[in-house]
Amino acid sequence: RRTLDVLNVFQGRDAEQAMRVEDIPAEDPAVYDMVCKADTVGVFQIESRAQMSMLPRLLPRCFYDLVIEVAIVRPGPIQGGMVHPYLRRRQGLEPVSYPSEAVRGVLERTLGVSIFQEQAMQLVVAAANFTPGESDQLRRAMAAWKRKGGLAPFRDKMLVGMAHNGYTPQFAESLYKQIQGFGEYGFPESHAASFALLVYVSCWLKCHHPAAFACGLLNSQPMGFYAPTQLVQDAQRHGVEVRAVDVTASDWDCTLEVTDTMTDKARNAPRPALRLGLRLINGLAQEAAERIATARIIAPFASITDLERRAGLPRRDLEALARADALVTLAGHRREAYWETLGLEAPLALDAGESVNRHDSRNADLTAPGEGGEIVMDYATTGLTLRRHPLALLRARLERAPAKHITAGRLEQLPDRAWARVCGIVTCRQRPGTAKGTVFVTLEDETGSINVIVWPDLVEAQRRELLAARLLGVYGQLQREGLVLNLVARRLFDHTALLGRLGTRSRNFH
Question: What is the distance between the alpha carbons of residues 421 and 407, in angstroms, rounded to a whole number?
């Protein structure tokens, strides 16, 4: 909704002309091309590490494929042993077979594998002589079987019924295992279809309107798997011009702005820039930001003093703006702006109006911070930077022999099973309940992301490095499966100290 709102405002559409979900074209091949490459950062439901790993294997090419994608990466299908058989059959590596026509009627749409909760319920009716009422009782028992141990009576009835109908004990046991898996958490087909609609809509917007999509996500934070810094970097990789927070241009929310080159030649559509909003500034009150936007409509701000007076900003909000480099248009770099805010005093009783600046700058060091210092302050005040990535500043050091670290971009060029050493900022750690102790880590450097697998024995051996490092080095072996690329860790290194003040999350301006 937020993405569509900002897009409609930018395109000048009124309420009658506004684009709605139902106006988005169905089955767009470009959308599925994007999805098959797991280019889904920020997309509802398919942005997680597990989903992004599944997408290049399943290769969705139509809406129903998305329905299956949503449902298959769940504890039920995973623990029920349904994922790999489905993928092998989809890829033509295993024949699709059915033990009976009754089973074919239930499972044909999912290649003979039970993926949806309804299919398990339909199977016990079709193959084990359950009545619809008994099937519904089984559905209720599935939700509470661990707590109440309520599946045993159903198992006996199911095995007897299936044996009577000529099914093998192996097939009956596999069905019971699937039902147990659904008890862990599985999707009904209708639920998966509803989610898949939002997946497709989100993907279409990301594919065709990346600036608006990023804008909608940033205005919805906090949510999802990704922080604003990752969302902004992903937008930039998709050709979006991202503009800094600026008190002379930014509203509370992020917005879209006209650019000098407005035409996206590939799609023959407007290509706006993304203006970051004041909401990203730590410590700035929303009410203050709204007063700034209101005052700016009347007339542009002439100076920090003018801003303070017309927007009625207290010292803490002015300082927050200065620290975030949001006053650069009015006062130069952040040190100059911060120093100027320190000099603002309330009007004297006999003054006609404007605040006066009585700060003496003769002993102040108003030289601009170095690039490293600017990046430190960017992260401390807004959680992201539009300057170079921190790893770009460290790259020369990381490439020194003998422990030479390669970039994410270079890693993609190596062959399967090659050994490599990488280093990146930790953006995600996941330990799914279905992974039996394995931890999945995502690292980020100046060229992209790196997916790391840490097996349970290494998790225990290097728990401190794994959990404490913000900048993590990994030595491991490359694992390729189609388009899916993982680095299986052999050794972990905590390189957080290389980040200097950024590593300690310093918020000290000086």
Answer: 9
C-alpha closest to that of 436 among 85, 168, 79: 79
**Counting every residue, how long is the chain?**
510
Tokens of 76: 């039920």
* CA–CA distance, 320 with 318 (Å, rounded to integer): 5
CA distance linking residue 405 with residue 322, whole number of Å? 37
User: Of 452, 468, 449, 369, which is closest to residue 409 (Cα–Cα)?
Assistant: 449
This prediction's pTM: 0.87
* Two structure tokens written together for 198: 């939002």
According to DSSP, residue 109 is labeled G
Written as six digits, the tokens of 380 are: 């401390």
Instruction: Compute, in degrees rounded to 10, the torsion defined by CA atoms 390, 394, 396, 397.
Output: -170
Q: State yes or no: cis peptide before 56, omega within 30 of 0.
A: no
> What integer is the mean pLDDT of 326-342?
89
Q: How far apart are CA 117 and CA 76, in angstroms?
A: 9
pLDDT tens figures, 111-153: 999 899 889 889 999 999 999 999 888 888 877 655 555 677 7
Alpha-carbon separation of residue 471 from 376, 392, 503 (angstroms): 14, 13, 8
